[in-house]
Specification:
The chain is mainly alpha-helical. The chain has 25 helices and 9 strands. The chain folds into 5 domains: 27 residues; 206 residues, Lysozyme; 76 residues, no CATH class; 84 residues, LysM domain (Membrane-bound Lytic Murein Transglycosylase D, Chain A, Roll); 46 residues, Membrane-bound Lytic Murein Transglycosylase D, Chain A (Roll). It has a 3-stranded antiparallel beta sheet with strand order 5-6-7. A two-stranded antiparallel ribbon has the order 1-4. Strands 2-3 form a two-stranded antiparallel ribbon. A hairpin with a 2-residue loop joins strand 5 and strand 6. The longest helix is centred in the first third of the chain and has 24 residues. The protein is elongated and about 90 Å long.
Length: 503
């Protein structure tokens, strides 16, 4: 955040305050920030070395540690010291903890892996509402951190909202979306509901019981108990399921807090919450279209966007949004026009019938595959073709020099196109090859054939104040000629930084 704040500070600095020696351009700075941020996220995602922690405790293989009641109680007391909750240590909670530690180890591993995607979000929202951080474990016993889980009674989502309760807290549902499955909206609603329940009972254990059974059942139990005011006094009068609810919460809180001591190693997380970004869409789109355009598996899109009941993201006001890894969302933002074109071509081709037949046929060649030479290898096409530009994904052992040589360009050009300040590159980094006719060096026997197939193209980057007609005039083209070179591009709405083909 400091890096991005610094960037905006630089962008707004008056010219007379810029030192003559300042040579770092905005594009180069943004590239530097993105590289630093991506490296940080990669380190962040692997920051816990569980192998060394387990080894330090002298555990062997799949051993299941057991501890005395005194140890369990001491650990619960340590958790109590840091929380407004009172995690009681009694015969009921001890029995539940021991059961979890012995029979729910696999579940704990999976949940800990999923927690990388959700716990930061939960903690952020809980802090916003001034609620105990330990409430993040409530979703574990509600749904196992699976947004699509639906109970027999009809409760749905990470926080298991019933339909009417969800509506009361603003969670909408229609044929395409169910906001009870939206991680952000449902978490916000759960925080408001839990805060309301605590305001009623003034006791977190009773608030949890009311979350599970409903305030009506808790109020009945309180009256039957002789108007007692603590959960353990009221517990015998609660529904059977709710009698086990708070002990389960305490056991889950304990086991997930002390999983290392119990020789439980989390399943590796596919993505962390900090690695996500969001893009709001200006029109309806199928997930299959997104998957095809940017090589993002449809199952992964669905997993990170459980709010959608089908694979279709509808048009709404305000617009619907899609969440995904930073690099996927960044790429999708840059290809929004192409995404809309592909969606129409696949699911509503009649919307494109007014265009010349050749435009419909050739559009994907220009905007998606960009007519690379025929001898580009299949491997490079799979990881280097994206949208209106060509990308190369850095592999192990490659250097900037070797990549430049591979595409018959200079290292200096690669540095300029990618805003690099040094020749250092890292595995997995995506390098933009600015000119879309840049191709991998052909084999000697294919060189002549390749040269025949090369097409020289020229692109113009849209600047502030540019219009489609101005760009056409500037490059001695009619608007219809410019339109033919840019099928699928809106002539009415241009974005600063957008690349328009002019030759």
């Amino acid at each position: 955040m400091l890096l991005f704040s610094s960037f905006y500070g630089i962008a707004q600095t008056p010219k007379y305050l810029v030192r003559p020696g300042d040579t770092l351009s905005k594009d180069a700075f943004i590239n530097t920030v993105e590289q630093s941020f991506n490296l940080f996220l990669a380190e962040y995602a692997n920051q816990t070395n569980y192998d060394s922690l387990i080894k330090a405790l002298n555990f062997d293989g799949d051993v299941t540690p057991e501890f005395s009641d005194e140890v369990y109680c001491e650990r619960l007391e340590k958790l109590n010291d840091m929380s407004p909750f009172h995690l009681d240590c009694n015969s009921i909670t001890l029995t539940t903890i021991k059961y979890f530690a012995k029979n729910r180890r696999g579940f704990a591993k999976i949940v800990l892996g999923r927690s990388a995607l959700y716990f930061d979000l939960f903690e952020e929202k809980l802090a916003e509402y001034g609620l105990p951080i330990e409430l993040k474990f409530l979703s574990v016993i509600e749904s196992g951190l699976r947004p699509q889980v639906k109970s027999k009674a009809g409760a749905l989502g990470l926080w298991q909202f019933m339909y009417k309760t969800g509506l009361y807290f603003g969670l909408k549902e229609n044929s395409y979306i169910d906001e009870r499955m939206d991680p952000v909206l449902a978490t916000d609603a759960a925080c408001r509901y839990l805060k309301q329940l605590y305001g009623i009972y003034g006791d977190w254990n009773l608030a949890l019981a009311a979350y599970n059974a409903g305030p009506g059942n808790v109020n009945k139990a309180i009256r039957r108990s002789g108007n007692k005011t603590t959960y353990w006094d009221v517990r015998p009068y609660l529904p059977t399921e709710t009698q086990g609810y708070v002990p389960n919460f305490i056991a889950a809180t304990y086991l997930l807090s002390y999983h290392v001591e119990h020789n439980i190693v989390p399943v590796k997380a596919k993505v962390h919450y900090a690695q996500l970004d969001t893009m709001c869409l200006n029109s309806g789109v199928h997930m299959s279209t997104i998957a095809k355009l940017i090589d993002w598996p449809e199952d992964d899109i669905k997993t990170l966007n459980p709010v959608y009941k089908t694979n279709y993201i509808p048009t709404t006001k305000p617009p619907q949004c899609i969440t995904g890894p930073l690099e996927k969302i960044g790429l999708l933002v840059s290809l929004e026009d192409t995404l809309n074109y592909l969606e129409k071509k696949t699911f509503n081709p009649s919307a494109l019938q007014s265009k010349p037949e050749t435009t419909t046929t050739d559009a994907l060649k220009v905007t998606v595959t960009d007519t690379l030479a025929a001898n580009t290898t299949a491997e490079n096409q799979s990881d280097s073709l994206t949208g209106t530009a060509v990308y190369h994904k850095v592999k192990s052992g490659e250097t900037l020099t070797s990549i430049a040589d591979k595409y018959s360009v200079t290292s200096e050009l690669l540095m300029e196109w990618n805003g690099l300040q040094t020749t250092n590159v890292y595995v997995g980094q995506r390098l933009l090859l600015k000119e879309t006719n840049v191709v991998e060096k052909p084999k000697p026997e294919e060189k002549k054939e390749t040269e025949k197939k090369k097409v020289t193209k020229k692109y113009y980057t849209v600047k502030k104040g540019d219009t489609f007609s101005r760009i056409a005039d500037k490059h001695h083209l009619s608007q219809s000629e410019l339109k033919k070179l840019n099928p699928g591009v809106s002539t009415r709405v241009l974005r600063v930084g957008q690349r328009i083909r002019v030759k």
